[in-house]
Amino acid sequence: MSPHARSVIITGGATMIGAAVAENFANNGDQVALFDIDVAAGEEVAGRLGAAVSFYDVDLTDDAAVSRGIADVVARHGGVDVLINLACTYLDNGLATTRADWITALNVNLVSAAIVTQIVVPHLKNRRGASVVNFTSISGDVAQAGRWVYPASKAAMSQLTRSMAMDLAPHGIRVNSVSPGWTWSSVMNTLSGGDRARTDEIAAPVHLTGRTGNPSEVAAVVAFLCSDVASIVTGANYTADGGYSAMGPERADQLMAQLTN
Ligand SMILES: NC(=O)c1ccc[n+]([C@@H]2O[C@H](COP(=O)([O-])OP(=O)(O)OC[C@H]3O[C@@H](n4cnc5c(N)ncnc54)[C@H](O)[C@@H]3O)[C@@H](O)[C@H]2O)c1
């Protein structure tokens, strides 16, 4: 439990992972603003989580809309203490990705995180325990077949986290990122037709935990990074990936043992 109620903005908060992050803050007594373009899902999440959580219809690629949204949050909650840059697009056609799609995807995944942070920073300055958490991914550290844009955007977010952490440290603002592995999320739900068991089965060989993560497990790492307990942590990329990134190309197979067969 945080000793003081905080004002929290979560971009992409309408999605399953965003909702879990919001729920964690709300349970802690914080006030949460969800910024998203998915009005139906955003209003459903806000309605379900209660009075502490409000939905704002904000297109993150529209600077004026972002500024209006942040001004509304400041007017309503008296400031901003925490920003979670969670929104993303999976728009990516690998080698065949058009210039327009490259620009659209990087605009959502990378540039919007930078601009939202830029607009929020004046409000974060000198707020006790101010912090920013960016969402990166296991995809930012490895090659994945047919994907060029999304992994590049996530790798860039890791670097942006370090840059932000350096320049915002003098203002008492900590900046970290969280890197989920396969998480039971809207995209997994849609792709698998709602089949969690099948999704876990496919994820198992590449995660030490042998399963996908729960949104609440990712949310717990975000909550830790934003808490006073993490007051010495800044510029870090925290994995919440079930050990995916600890594994090498040999996975958990004993390849050397196969030499003797
Ligand atoms: N799902 C996973 O397994 C997984 C794994 C690693 C990392 N991540 C990261 O976790 C975060 C959440 O992932 P997810 O799978 O829940 O994503 P998602 O696609 O379900 O949700 C993304 C949200 O961003 C919103 N959004 C997109 N463009 C926007 C815009 N212009 N303005 C405002 N909102 C916009 C969407 O409406 C959506 O609600 C992302 O940053 C993703 O990279 C997810």
UniProtKB/TrEMBL annotation:
<dbReference type="Pfam" id="PF13561">
    <property type="entry name" value="adh_short_C2"/>
</dbReference>
<keyword id="KW-0560">Oxidoreductase</keyword>
<comment type="similarity">
    <text>Belongs to the short-chain dehydrogenases/reductases (SDR) family.</text>
</comment>
<dbReference type="GO" id="GO:0016491">
    <property type="term" value="F:oxidoreductase activity"/>
</dbReference>
<protein>
    <submittedName>
        <fullName>SDR family oxidoreductase</fullName>
    </submittedName>
</protein>
<dbReference type="InterPro" id="IPR036291">
    <property type="entry name" value="NAD(P)-bd_dom_sf"/>
</dbReference>
<dbReference type="InterPro" id="IPR020904">
    <property type="entry name" value="Sc_DH/Rdtase_CS"/>
</dbReference>
<dbReference type="InterPro" id="IPR002347">
    <property type="entry name" value="SDR_fam"/>
</dbReference>
